[in-house]
Design goal:
The protein is mainly beta and about 375 residues long. Helix content is about 10%, strand content about 45%. The chain is built from six helices and 35 strands. The strands form six sheets. Strands 1, 2, 4, 5, 6, 7, 8, 9, 10, 11, 12 and 13 form a twelve-stranded mixed β-sheet that branches. The longest helix is centred in the N-terminal third of the chain and has 7 residues, at about 60-65. It is globular and about 60 Å long.
Length: about 375
């Protein structure tokens, strides 16, 4: 999410029983690892984010802790650069890891549904140790570097000059590196436009998609790949987002990012001091991409569906839908009946050839015919 200059910080301390201290988490609708931790003697809602060099505290939470301001500046973020403050850190504790002293970044955090958190725990806290993320069991723990509690495929892992975690993978016969390992990014893969230009497989169709970061919403090109080679093994299908020149990955000095959308297919051990990332595949994980067949990215609120983005080349674009429009009925039924518990809307990814009748809140109706378009 953020890249900031490397800071001299207090080294975290790992408790002797840290291996037994699993931290339960929820995987949000945007694929963020959200859990509770302690900050300045208070309980805080936190997100595990190896894509940031310095732990971030929301401005409202920092104000409640009365953190001492040090200096102000700007930091690179997904969606664009944002204003930030540097402040003295409170005591931080999660699982068996704690730190007293050091610095944190304070900034306004996204207020979007499913993104709310007080703290984004960055690589300044996590880089000391090995991070064991068991996505299937929705828990993680922090271990001494060098521990290997399970086996799997191995990929190289290092820390950059600013401290974030990086690895590499192969696409189209090209080895791409450094690739940011970003547990705070809910998407699967992101590549800079330069990396995409040299590795794009033939016959891949491109559309657009919408993402959100600390810097705001971001429209980017997107495609579905047959897979990449990570840790010497093929991953299965993956959606890739292609950042325009000057995007976050380029600003961070990387060729792209691997996010939780890909990592959740595995149990993952991140151990930069030992130079390795261990990936143990989850046999129950979904390894194909659920494609939109409508081309609509929607947000459900107050009984209506707001159109956030219309994907390029899609049935929704062909039918003339625009961002900001609201849909109240689908096939004559209120849209609230279509929203599933996980937030998905069934007809948006329905079978190709199906015709869906959509009406706005004034009763004006348009139909779209679902199809594969990317």
């Amino acid at each position: 999410m953020l890249a900031f200059l490397a800071l001299a910080i207090q080294e975290p301390v790992l408790a002797p029983d840290s291996e037994a201290r699993w931290v339960p988490f929820e995987l949000t609708a945007s694929n963020q690892i959200r859990f509770t931790m302690q900050a300045g003697g208070r309980e805080a809602m936190a997100v595990l984010d190896t894509g940031i060099s310095t732990t971030v505290v929301s401005r409202s939470f920092a104000d409640g802790l009365r953190l001492k301001h040090i200096q102000s500046g700007r930091a690179a973020a997904i969606g664009g650069a944002i204003p930030v403050d540097l402040a003295e850190a409170p005591r931080l504790a999660l699982g068996g890891l704690s730190r007293v002293g050091g610095r944190v970044i304070v900034t306004e955090m996204p207020a979007l549904a499913g993104l709310a958190a007080d703290i984004y725990v960055g690589s300044d806290l996590l880089g000391c140790c090995a991070l064991d993320i068991d996505y299937a069991a929705r828990r993680f723990r922090i271990l001494q570097s060098g521990r290997m509690p399970f086996t799997g495929d191995t990929a190289p892992l290092a820390r950059t000059r600013i401290g974030v975690f990086v690895t590499e993978f192969t696409l189209g016969g090209r080895r791409l590196r450094p690739i940011l390992v970003d547990t705070g990014d809910g998407s699967s893969l992101t590549l800079t436009s330069q990396s995409w230009a040299i590795s794009r497989p033939p016959g891949i169709r491109i559309t657009t998609t919408l993402g959100f970061g600390a810097g705001g919403p971001l429209v980017s090109d997107a495609a579905v790949l047959p897979g990449i080679t990570l840790g010497g093994k093929a991953t299965g299908e993956a959606e890739v987002r292609i950042e325009a020149a000057g995007g976050f990955s380029q600003a961070a000095g990387t060729a792209g990012r691997i996010g939780t959308g890909m990592l959740l297919r595995y149990r993952v051990l991140l151990d930069p001091r030992a130079g390795r990332m261990i990936l143990s595949p989850d046999p129950a994980a979904v390894t194909h991409v659920v494609r939109s067949t409508s081309g609509m990215l929607l947000n459900y609120t107050l009984g209506t569906l707001e159109v956030l983005h219309v994907m390029r080349g899609s049935p929704a674009e062909q039918a003339g839908f625009k961002p900001g429009e609201r849909i109240c009925t689908a096939d004559g039924m209120p849209v609230r009946t279509d929203v599933e518990d996980d937030g998905r809307i069934e007809w948006t990814v329905g079978a190709p050839g199906r015709v869906v009748r959509l009406a706005d809140c004034e009763g004006r109706e348009r139909s779209i015919t679902l199809r594969l378009f990317y």
